[in-house]
Write a structure and sequence with these properties.
Helix content of chain A: 25-40%
CATH architecture of the largest domain in chain A: 3-Layer(aba) Sandwich
Oligomer: heterodimer
Number of helices of chain A: 11
Shape of chain A: globular
Distance between the termini of chain B: 15 Å
Strand order of the largest sheet of chain A: 7-6-5-8-9
Largest sheet of chain A: 5 strands, parallel
Structural class of chain B: alpha/beta
Shape of chain B: globular
Distance between the termini of chain A: 7 Å
CATH class of the largest domain in chain A: Alpha Beta
Number of domains of chain A: 2
Chain lengths: 318, 429
């Protein structure tokens, strides 16, 4: 870590669309050093001591929020959380006004989750503190995609040249979009498969091959990333029934045989076991789903360090 | 009232077939003389050397917000904004609070305009009561009070039977129907054009078909009833084609386009700047190209702003929460010159036609020409003046412009309304 020249020049992490391949690799390399800390007896370093980092969640979240929380704490930052139910958000304070308040409190970084695309951009334009996008509507979930890249690299070595299939509700998925940007930048081939109603228009221009048939899509695939299917998609007319979705797009051991032998199975969670993924696949030998969790913490530590540690900390994780 | 002599300018008036250097004398609110060299020592001289002199510009689609939303705009600020942009007449849409769906509200607007307006204000009445799309508004009473058209702008009369009845009923009152074309069942929650950039941003989308479907329906209904139909803010390729085909069949249909729809594409939304949020949404580059063709071949008759001012705090929010709309009166003419006239999409005469005589004819206004004896509504334009758009300098209360910081070439330097100089060198007098 001490050899790593920090050259991450962005104030914020809003999307992976505008990051270079080198910047993504820097984040992943930094995360590798961070993950080493997990093996220590005391899983904590003083790197971000005195820094104030705020979780601002306008949408419920368990794993992303706690992952950021843990990441900040392992770097000794002061972590604070504001969520809809406990802040003035319910009283109708605007995002911009809340942002000013957080800045006045001396926040060095604000992590935001919001249901509306672009909300992190509004926040980033309003305050000087670093803004980390923890998911904004269907737009982006950059830290999830980065932890997915980390996990693929850890399990499969190089990402370049691999074929990755993303399965399910691409239309409403920020995870899919961020994965597509990252995978393309890192040289993977990207496929998506799902019901046509859940594939957004002109997606192919983002650099993906579109399939509607799962069997065809899985053939020759190295990594399959299975998205959560939201139960309300049925009511809004995107799907006739979950039963039918499972029949045509659910991943079980049988269909997985169509993929390459060393297939890796991923899922951003939370899973609907028995709907988009069968239990035996979720916890089978090809699954890295539980590895994704600690990798998420490591990647978020790396980002908090790169965005708020900056040049002021010379020997980051040592 | 003191006489005005507009001297040495190039007079461009398509209605009068004029495009030459002429002087223009104005007295008692009327054009009194148009000649090569006028000598009038008693008159105040406006030096128009190297400038263009046109009939006063007419914007047939603005939202003045009064009554009800005076924090966004009112008749005074909205018409000052119009005058600053070179417009001498505006037609204002009825989506106020209360809605302009009865003669009382029309009278209110006319009374307020008499006191506060810098330019001529022509109210448009609603098609249905409360813009609810359920029952016809009192169109006859409103006509007596002075409306120039009916429209449920902002809303579409989704009930096709009711739209047909409106087109039939209005024949008794010789009013055109202006249609905001949007199939609401396709646009629920939508905020941007459906295409590559809605996919990239994850924002909820409004497909082009939502507009095309209602344009097709309303053209068919206009054809059936024989009532003149005007399509507001055309934004899609297919809508242009539908209007073109209908005109070729002899249907009485006209169409307008806004400056933002011929200037910007949906790529602008990737910044998530809420000033790019407008209805209809900014469309694809293919749509924009066809709109320019439609302007050039005359399919699109009118350039109108859909001036939709909002308060700063209303736009300074998350994309979905922001209201639709762009404050357009003060950038319209500069955009016409920069985006259409200079790149030769339109000749200057064609552009002026779409800003003067064409909207006047659609709304049956006795405006849009510089014939001796007509109202002295005149705009003086400097085609070469370059300036950077600064919303803080807008006379409009609405600072919601996606063109802030853009350098545009060409703008109005004097506006004369009914013989009175109301704007000179970008200052309201």
């Amino acid at each position: 870590m001490s050899d790593t020249q920090v050259s991450f020049k962005h104030k914020d992490l809003l999307s992976l669309k505008n990051l270079t391949k080198e910047e993504i690799k820097l984040i992943l390399d930094t995360a590798e050093s961070m993950k080493e800390i997990f093996t220590r007896k005391i899983k904590k370093v003083p790197t971000l001591r005195g820094k104030t980092i705020i979780n601002l969640f306008y949408e419920p979240s368990t794993r992303t929020k706690s992952s950021f929380d843990l990441a900040g704490k392992r770097l000794s930052a002061d972590m604070m959380s504001l969520s809809v139910s406990t802040s003035s958000v319910v009283k109708g304070e605007s995002l911009v006004d809340t942002a000013q308040t957080l800045e006045a409190m001396g926040a060095d970084a604000v992590i935001i989750r919001h249901s509306i695309p672009g909300s992190p951009h509004l926040l980033a334009d309003t305050i000087d503190a670093s803004v980390l996008n923890a998911g904004d509507g269907a737009h982006a979930h950059p830290t999830q995609a980065l932890l997915d890249m980390y996990t693929i690299r850890e399990k499969c070595g190089e990402i370049e040249g691999k074929t990755v299939l993303i399965v399910g509700d691409i239309r409403h998925s920020r995870v899919a979009r961020s994965n597509i940007w990252a995978l393309n930048k890192l040289g993977a081939k990207v496929r998506v498969v799902g019901p046509p109603t859940l594939i957004p228009p002109q997606l192919e221009k983002m650099g993906v091959e579109i399939y509607y048939d799962l069997h065809e899509a899985l053939t020759g695939v190295d990594i399959v990333n299975i998205l959560r299917i939201q139960l309300e998609r049925q009511e809004s007319g995107f799907l006739p029934s979950l039963r039918e979705y499972t029949k045509f797009y659910g991943i079980d051991e049988e269909v997985l045989k169509l993929a390459n032998d060393d297939i890796t199975v991923m899922h951003p969670g939370p899973m609907n076991r028995g709907i988009e993924i069968m239990p035996e696949v979720a916890y089978g030998e090809d699954s890295v789903i539980t590895d994704q969790i600690p990798n998420g913490v490591a990647v978020r530590m790396a980002l908090l360090y790169l965005l708020t540690g900056g040049e002021r900390v010379e020997k980051a994780a040592n | 009232m003191k006489k005005l002599l507009i001297k040495g300018g190039k007079v461009v008036s398509p209605a009068d077939d004029l495009n030459e250097e002429l002087d223009l004398l104005v007295g008692d609110g009327k054009v009194t003389e148009v000649a090569e060299e006028i000598d009038a020592p008693e008159a105040e001289v406006i030096d128009a050397t190297d400038k263009i002199v046109t009939p006063g510009l007419i914007d047939m689609h603005v939202h003045l917000r009064e009554p009800g939303f005076e924090h966004k705009e009112d008749i005074k600020s909205g018409t000052e904004s119009a005058a600053a942009g070179g417009f001498t007449s505006v037609a204002c849409m009825p989506n106020t609070e209360p809605v302009v769906d009865n003669a009382t509200v029309v009278n209110y607007i006319n009374d307020k305009a008499k006191i506060n307006a810098k330019v001529n204000v022509f109210p448009i009445g609603s098609i249905t009561k409360g813009l609810e799309g359920k029952e016809l508004a009192e169109i006859g009473f409103m006509k007596e009070a002075g409306i120039v058209a009916i429209s449920d702008d902002g809303e579409t009369v989704m009930n096709s039977e009711l739209m047909k009845l409106a087109l039939e009923y209005v024949k008794a009152f010789d009013l055109p129907v202006i249609s905001h074309c949007e199939d609401k069942t396709l646009t629920e929650n939508g905020v941007v054009h459906e295409g590559y950039y809605s996919t990239v941003t994850g924002l909820d989308a409004i497909p082009a078909a939502a507009e095309d479907i209602i344009v097709a329906r309303d053209i068919r209904l206009a054809e059936m009833t024989g009532t003149p139909l005007h399509i507001a803010h055309v934004s899609t390729k297919r809508a242009v084609e539908l209007v073109r085909d209908a005109k070729a069949r002899g249907v009485q249909v006209t169409a307008e386009v806004t400056p933002h729809h011929f200037t910007l594409t949906d790529e602008a939304i990737t910044t998530f700047d809420t000033n790019t949020k407008v209805n209809p949404p900014l469309r694809s580059s293919e749509d924009v190209a066809v709109i320019k063709e439609g302007l050039a071949d005359g399919t699109i008759d009118v350039i109108a702003t859909d001036h939709a001012p909002h308060a700063w705090e209303e736009k300074d929010v998350e994309y979905d929460y922001a209201p639709f709309g762009i404050a357009g009166l003060e950038t319209a003419l500069p955009l016409v010159i920069t985006e259409l006239v200079k790149p030769e999409v339109l000749s200057l005469e064609e552009a002026i036609e779409k800003l003067t005589v064409n909207p006047a004819q659609i709304l049956s206004l006795n405006k849009g020409s510089l014939t001796v004896g007509e109202d002295a509504d005149i705009t003086v334009i400097d085609l070469d003046q370059e300036y950077e758009v600064d919303a803080n300098k807008f006379y409009s209360k609405g600072k919601n412009s996606p063109f802030i910081g853009e350098v545009l070439g060409g703008r109005a330097v004097a506006t004369i309304v009914n013989g009175k100089l109301v704007m000179k060198n970008n200052e309201i007098l």
